[in-house]
Amino acid sequence: MKHMNSEVKEERTSNKKRIDLFLVPIVLIAAFLNLFKIWTDEYANAYYTAAVKSMLQSFHNFFYASFDPGGYVTIDKPPVVFWIQTISAKIFGFHGWSVILPQALAGIGSVLLLYVLIKRTFGVWAGRFAALAMALTPIVPAVSRTNNIDSMLVFTLLLATWMLFRAVRTVKFGWVLAAFAMIGVAFNMKMLQAYMVLPAFYVFYVVATKITWKKKIAFLTTATALMLAVSVSWAVVVDSTSADKRPYMGSSQTNSVLELAFGYNGINRLTGNTSVTGSSHKQPAQTEQQTASSETKQNSNSSADSSQSSNQRKSSFSQKMQAPGGGNQNGMFNTGNPGPFRLFQKGLSDQISWLLPFVIFSIVGLFAGVKFKGPYTAKQKESLFWLAWLLPVAVFFSIAGFFHQYYLIMLAPPIAAFAGAGAVALWSMYKQHNDWKSWLLPGGILTTAALQVYIMSPYVSSIGVAPIAGVGALGVILALVLAIRKQRKNSLTNYLGAAAMVVLLAMPAYWAMTPIIYGGNSMLPSAGPDSSSGMGGPPSTATNSKQSGFNGMQPPGSSSGNSSSNNQMQPPSGSSNGGQMRGGSSNNGQMQPPSGSSNSGQMQMPGGSSNNSQMPNSFSSKSSSSKRKSGGMNAEVNQKLLNYLTKNNTGEKYLFATTDSTSAAPYIIKTGKPVMAMGGFSGSDPILTVSKLKAMIKKGEVKHFYLSGMGKGGQSDVITWIKENSKEIPSSKWQSTSSSAQQGPSGNGTLYEITLK
User: Considering the entire predicted model, what is its pTM?
Assistant: First the structure.
């Protein structure tokens, strides 16, 4: 801290000729948090891992990002990140860790990029603090340790930011084009989410570039046109290709990439509603990996301990999983209720908000004395950029109807930037001024410590009272001592300032390690003592948060094990709601469908089974493998079913067909053979018609069908036809009798065979 008042110019000169030794441990911390034990995740996010397996098999699958090797349907995102993952799998072999590796490296790269961006203008100490804050923001490593897209997206947007800053410094139009083209590339990673940074790009370029208004408008117009062209380039090619020559565009209702971009991956994220084919209702948007809670987690606890606490865990889970309207204060998937203080609510605050009060004080300090008409210093201009990134994204997450906790990584760069730049600025004001600005540092420390106590308080049963009391007490003491010693400039004051920063980063650092300590969730990543459950929120009544997860769920073809009639999670049985979760009234902690549904009081699972297929009232506690299979509900295959299907395949293109991707993904990963997810990712895509299916059967493309429910959305007619025109295969020929070794959902499905002449 005593070096923080050094001149920025001197710091730049001293660091140009050598490696910043303070940066080395920061990068090592980021590498540890992002890379350690990723090799234990065998399947990663199975939905996306299956796509990589398929994309390795042909350029056709590679270009379109086909979910299955047969090229039947794509995944629900654009292809760029999956192209990178496929290349990684090609180089290192197909493994869970090889598809995670690009995102882990992107997480480390984001730390380095933020250091470079902040250091140049705000000084080396600001760069160091910003990089460390980015590395220790809990949701950053939680996402980077998976094959989800967001870590790569943030890295790409930070790279675009570096290009934009360079464009302003050099006043070269080429860098402006490169920056906006990079946003276009990011669009082909996660569509409209990439555009969340556009306000910052436009505002900063207008304010910071020393050229005429005429040139500013011309340059920005041209750069925006290039960005749009890059953004829609892949979409135009796909949508222009005949539908019979490419896979169906997954999670769209019209087989269109543009509809996917502006619908399912666009406006529906804001409204929280999506129309399901065959339903007259508006539904909450489907979770990106079926249902948020379905992650299977292996651990080393005894089955006896697991059995004793299963009822408590069920109660905790069902309370968390109530949809909006069901009375759950944490909202759907623990994302809180919309409102101005949403980012301070449970489930979100512990992912991203640890330093938000300090950031607010930093913003006040950085903009102190700024006049609307300028002139602006370089620090003020770049502070405006990060503010224009932070505010729109924070507003979106405060009002959005549907998103997952790991999307909050979009807030990590501006929060970390203000934490670093603000630490230096507030320290300087504390040391050099005697007015209100000198109180910003102790005020920021005090309020941030108070928020962190609030964030940790629901986890007292998991982490104990000591760290909570310690952060609170040290925060208050250090803030008060700094306030008292405000006029004393000596080494002790410097050490107190450094100690305060350590205290404020201590618990975020612990939270960032929780995916390593407790196990992560590649399907719905989050940080916290229950990080393996995919819920990302405070434990409710569970006695051991390490045991979160549903190990008692079976894959297609395995027996259901023990079950209970209470607190069940069941799929629809021919209801018109498309199998999606909807808000309903609470009854004994159960997730309930809307009134009128035949499965009142039960949680409906996409791709789930009929009423006889219940979520078992047990939690398997011993893994059948040393590797963690956290790819989703069906993280393992039923070997007996696979053997039967392989033996009885007489040249059909598809090993079997099933309703959705959840049942199909593990078999694609295991065998590399085509498995048809008839309704796409969630089972609601209107891909297949009865006439199309008849034609496929007559051509000998498919004959086996594994069904565990009535189907959803536009495929209910198809499911009905299959049941009416097929031969049921006796379960003794293909159904596993061992539930302990087979984990996943929909254990009581039925296998059918159809042959048409």
Answer: 0.82
